[in-house]
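Aggregate trends can hide what the representation actually does to any particular protein. The sequence in question and its structure tokens are set out directly beneath this paragraph.
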Amino acid sequence: MPKQNLPVEIAVQDAAGVRIALEAGAARVELCQALALGGLTPSAGLVEAAVEAAAAASVTGFVHVLVRPRGGGFVYDADEVAGVERDIRAAVRAGADGVVVGAMREDGTLDADAIARWIEAAGAADVTVHRVVDAAADPVAAVASLPALGVRRVLTSGGAPDCRAGLPGLAAMHAAVGDTVEVMAGGGVRVADIPELASAGVDAVHLSARRSVTRGAGGPGGGIDAFDATDAATVVDAIAAAAQG
């Protein structure tokens, strides 16, 4: 059966995106930067601003911080694993309600040791494992390994390039973990996809609701001119679609 009032998580890259998600009634945000790279760790200042905005709105469990040190895959060396641990501790000290992490071994299996270390660093904060599972050699098996680690939820497209193609995988993942891990569908989600995702039995949906904005020129050394911003209308529409189940 479709889930009623399916929680919606919005990936945001700035304080304005946090406010949009709060005002629209999103369940939470995944706070990050560089969504064009799949998302990287946001600045300490942005984490603090998001926590303050959620507190001012009296919304709890809202700020979940992506902790990913770089693009280019999920196999990390010892320095990177330690750096992620430090960033997790810093995010939790700043008041984040949860962190979003993931790591892989060269053989295509999840790096359970790194993830367990990060879960310990997170303490009482929620831990979501991100779409590293979709890059695994066996995505369903990767998700099935998460309950033993104590992961709260997993963000996944069902092992496919996007959630539409991944509907069978999402259903298989949900069946594999039952109620032990929340399965959150994310990856190319459009508003029109949300009713079908709800019917697949997922526990939440995740989207970035991005639009491209230009504000001045990048110029030499400034990179590209355009940047991503959260589109308020898309966020509102997504939450309305999720509420219909």
